[in-house]
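User: Could you check the structure of this?
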Amino acid sequence: MSASAALPLSLAADEAYPSRRPAPDKRKFVSEAVEAKIAEVKRSIANPELGWLFENCFPNTLDTTVQVGTLDGQPDTFVITGDINAMWLRDSTAQVWPYLPLSKHDTKLKNLLAGVIRRQTRCVLIDPYANAFNFGPTGSEWSKDRTKMKPELHERKWEIDSLCYTLRLAHGYWKTTGDAGCFDRKWQEAAALIVRTFREQQRFHGPGPYSFQRLTEVPSDSLPLSGYGNPTRPCGLIHSGFRPSDDACVYPYLVPSNFFAATSLEQLAEIFEAELPNKAFAAECRALSAQLREALGKYATGHHQKYGEVYAYEVDGYGNHLFMDDSNIPSLLAMPYLDSCSANDPVYRNTRAFVLSLDNPYYFRGKAAEGAGGPHAGLGMIWPLAITVRALTSLSESEIADCLKTLKATHAGTGFMHEAFSKDDAKNYTRPWFAWANTLFGELILNVHQNHPRLLS
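Assistant: Sure, the predicted structure tokens are below.
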């Protein structure tokens, strides 16, 4: 498709696409700014099916997944993933992230976002090694996992990105709104705990306090070697038990997550330098970020026989590299989206070419579509998250247009994005209610509306 081409008009009229949103009185939260943005953007979308998808998907987090209230006189917002009734630190940030620019025009929405930050602060203070939390001390189906479970935890898989996402949201909220009210004593305690946890998992002085084992038939749901994971040689990088997919790492220095941590630490330092009287802690954050970047410069890349110097997905500090990518974010493909590198970085360009090829063992091409997947949903399963982030990180209008066409063609008539679908049959999909994928698709449409409007018109 040429760079100037737009999506072809559907033969069906708008009436053929009735809203799949809950009735207004059944929605969990209504933002006037979000509703106005939906109306504005939809008017610019010539293809009725694409406009319908945007209208269904963009508000899905607000419509269906948020529980808004107050705690100790402050906003408190609990965000479930959709069909799993628990709050992931990663997903909850990603689900509300696209609403940040609109919070400047909607006090209710701004308070909802502040409530997510405060809830995440409480979660980190409960356990910085946990990835998912209950609304209260209700226990979970994973309570028998061999780790230090607490009744407030839904799951306790140590994933670097969980803590990075909490910092990303706090920093993004502050930069957007100018409001530093969330940075109270508890938030500062959580920030210090995040840095301490990163330090512990550099493993310079032993494996640290975290281990995890699960009685399961799925090997990637548990960690080997008494629950401490495969060995790494201490080099400055942070050892992760699990990937953003919640699958166990093979080589536990997860490269995109370590890049994410370096960026997040710099953002944390900026907050403490500008808003909080603790320049020493800001300096500690910058020093740790610099240590990570130095180690990434030494260990994160490897030579691929076809693509040259590329970023590995995982390394171990012993010289071993795992050349693949996973669709969950952070991924190698998503690194520019998370400000981990420039989209023009030569090593990223090589890596991107590899990730988006059949040389990546988790890139699939079939009768329905082609795209990246990952081990979590199985071979041959393509993730809309990966197609969306491919478009968000693309420098080519024709590539963005192709991604939009694929997403429009593979929602299987549901009006929503899914976790994954078969490369040969989009009606064979997982997770019909996966709010992160829906909201990220909405973010893509907003991005295209602002930067590539002719693709919609």
